[in-house]
Each structure stands twice: as C-alpha cells, then as structure tokens.
Amino acid sequence: MLDSLDKQDKEILKLSKLCKHWADHNITHKESFLKWQGIAQEKGLESIVGKLKNAIEMLDKCNEFLLDANRELESL
Q: Are 12 and 76 in contact (CB under 8 A)?
C-alpha cells in the first residue's frame, strides 16, 4: 500500500509541475499571437485581428485554470 501512495504522490507532483509548465509554455504562444495580431492589424485584416484577440483571451482563461489546478495540487 505504501508503494501505491508513493506513486500517487509522485503523479500528483508531476501533474502539478505539468500544469505550471503548460501555463508557462502558453505565454510563448501568447507572445506569438500578439506579434501576428499586430501584423494582421497592419494589413487591415480586422476579422483575423478579432479572431486572434479571442484566441488570446481564451489562452489567458486556460492559464487561469491551469494555475488554479497547480495551486490546488500544491496544497494537497
């Protein structure tokens, strides 16, 4: 039984770290989205600008959930 608890604790720790990693990784995607949103803006592609804006907002929301999960896992 002790071995299964140790494995479970390791999986919880790994999941916590993965949530943080995914959120951090999403920041690099957001930077790229912002760059290309600016390019689309310069070219007058308003529909694309709006879609990228929505994607950025969703990515921010995704990071909220990932970081909330990370905090909850860290408190276990």
A: yes
**How far is 13 from 8, CA to CA, in rounded Å?**
9
Residue 38 domain boundaries: 27-76
Q: Where are the alpha helices (DSSP H) in 1-76?
A: 2-42, 46-74
Q: Which whole-number Å values give the CA distances from 31 to 37, 42, 51, 56, 60, in the listed order? A: 10, 17, 15, 9, 12
User: 47 in a domain, yes or no?
Assistant: yes
Amino acid at 76: L
What single DSSP character describes residue 44?
Answer: T
Could you tell me if residue 5 is inside a domain?
no
pLDDT digits (tens, 9 = 90+) for 28-68: 999 999 999 999 999 999 999 999 999 999 999 999 999 99
65 part of a folded domain: yes
**Domain contains 16:** no
